[in-house]
Specification:
The protein has about 140 residues and is an all-alpha fold. It is about 65% helix and about 0% strand. The longest helix has about 30 residues, at about 5-40.
Length: about 140
């Protein structure tokens, strides 16, 4: 009898093979879970299109204080229609900078608008929508 034909060795090889297959399956599932957990949320196509409309409306903020406040309230109501809160946060930040700039209270750092655009687009990649955040004019 060779070493591989002994009953106890066959059982050990079978047990080792099964254990290796289970470990591989668990590791693959864990890797998939970890990857999905670290991916940005994905907004719907409707959310992404609404987000672009919100960004575009920030280019048309009135110049007077009352008009700015009215625009802010209107934008907030429309932003609540976004189902993806993470996308909504990026849009909210952009709108906040636009309103602050319109009030004459400051302008965003140059790379801030680009960072917000990249962050928002990470939530719209599955929807095949590319958001464009124009520079915020002072």
């Amino acid at each position: 009898m060779t070493a591989f034909t002994r009953p106890q060795n066959r059982k050990a090889i079978l047990f080792g093979t099964v254990a290796l297959l289970i470990f591989t399956a668990v590791a693959a599932a864990g890797g998939y879970w970890w990857n999905e957990r670290n991916e940005p949320s994905q907004a719907s196509r409707t959310d992404c299109k609404l987000a672009q409309l919100l960004v575009d409306s920030a280019q048309k903020i009135p110049g007077d204080q009352a008009g700015i406040e009215k625009w802010e309230k209107s934008a907030q109501k429309r932003r609540y229609q976004l189902d993806d809160g993470y996308l909504g946060a990026s849009i909210s930040n952009y709108e906040g900078w636009a309103a602050t700039t319109a009030k004459g209270e400051g302008t965003p750092p140059k790379n801030e608008v680009q960072r917000l655009e990249e962050e928002a687009n990470s939530h719209c990649s599955d929807a095949d929508v590319t958001l464009v955040f124009p520079p915020i004019a002072s």
